[in-house]
Each structure stands twice: as C-alpha cells, then as structure tokens.
Amino acid sequence: MAWCLRVVPSGGESRSLWPNCSLSWGLEASGGGGDDRVRNLRDEVEGVKNIMTQNVERILARGENLDHLRNKTEDLEATVR
C-alpha cells in the first residue's frame, strides 16, 4: 500500500505531490506558509528515505561479511579435524 499526500490550497483544486497515487491524505494549506511547510516535509521525508537506503545497504554488507566469516570458520574447523 502506498501513501500519498494531496495538497488542497484554500479555495483551490487539490493536486497530488507524487504522480500515480491511488491513496491520499488531505492537507489544507492556509496562506503562503503551507507551501513551505509541505516542501519542508517533502525534503525531510527524502532525507529519511536516503538514510534508510544507506542503512539497508550497510545491513546487506554486514550480512555478506558474516557469511564470509562463517565460511572461514567452517574451513578452519575442517582443517583441525
């Protein structure tokens, strides 16, 4: 399920901030400050998305390192016997 943000300016038509959204939440923008708030929220979400992508990449790399260490351990056990 994808979440979308739909902007509804005062007295205006709603428009989606992301294309191809099937689900949306309404956000009333009252005055000129609403656009800045939405832009700031979008930037913050993008920053969180980048951090999460980095975290997933690090987790995958750690898993590869653990697999490599396990293989080394199995090789050492085999040579000891």
TrEMBL record:
SUPFAM superfamilies assigned to the protein according to its UniProt record, in alphabetical order: SNARE fusion complex
GO annotations of cellular component type: endomembrane system; membrane
Coiled-coil features, chain-numbered ranges: none
Entries under Pfam families matching the protein: Synaptobrevin
One record GO biological process: vesicle-mediated transport
Main location: membrane
Membrane topology: Single-pass type IV membrane protein
Subcellular location: Endomembrane system
Keywords, sorted A to Z: Coiled coil
Domain of life according to the entry: Eukaryota
V-SNARE coiled-coil homology domain: residues covered: 37-81
Protein family (similarity comment): Belongs to the synaptobrevin family.
Protein's recorded name: V-SNARE coiled-coil homology domain-containing protein
Organism: Bos mutus (wild yak)
Lineage: Eukaryota, Metazoa, Chordata, Craniata, Vertebrata
